[in-house]
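Quick start: read one record
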Amino acid sequence: MKKVGIRFKRTGKLSFYLTDNDEIKLSDSVVADTEKGEEIGVVAKVVEPEDGEELEKIKRMATDKDFKKQKEMDDKAHEALKFCKEQAKKLELDMKVLTAEYTLDGTKLTIYFVSEDRIDFRELVKIIASKYRARIELRQIGPRDEAKEYPTLGMCGREVCCRTHIENFDPVTIKMAKEQGLQINMSKLSGACGKLMCCLRFEEEIYKENLKQLPKVGEIVKVKGEQDKAKVTSVDILNKMVKVRFNFDSEDEDRYETYPVDKLKWTPKAPKKEEKEDVSDNDDEIVEE
């Protein structure tokens, strides 16, 4: 018996299942039951199950017949998406309908949309359900999830991370930008979704660890081999280098030097308490019929 992690969307979360098929390997396409219904997913991880672990079993390897059925469902979902947009416009609902998807067995149709406000779309759900005779779910998603729907390039020139590898949208804060020594310019710190760029979180841990070993700008330090004290003017966080200013309290000409942190001595100040700043998206809304 093997435990496999299956991804049903390109950057979706892993769902774990059990299988007694020893031939299943990474990148294989399989069919499994989900909370939505029957879906095709790709094996992204294979591990040994824990003792006594109870998980749903994979139904089967995906066949040509399954892929053909999925194509039919995708075409049907495209038709439903067009119909939903037309009806939303007729009902004058302030919403942007993005995508639609059917389960492989055709029992459920999920439609994703964005809106700045909460929308009463119960009438829209009834209209769609009467036409397509399936369980209908309208899901309101946030701007980060919206960005995943388009092949957009980020400021780095590569495709945005949410479409390539990010599974979960962890909170990203202004504090992270400050810790990395970045200028607080929202137009430069914001991604395609209009929110703070997710990549600010990628190196957060190394920046936080290095900052613990560095003096703060404005602190007074003693440099090995120098008699005079100096004031910190800037820090290179990743390289652990510190620029200091000598003669800061005298009429002599200022002298600036750069040193590695291990050449400095100082008494660290007590850290200030800061409020946690969370800008994650938690605005999903679901209505089913």
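The longest strand covers residues 38-47.
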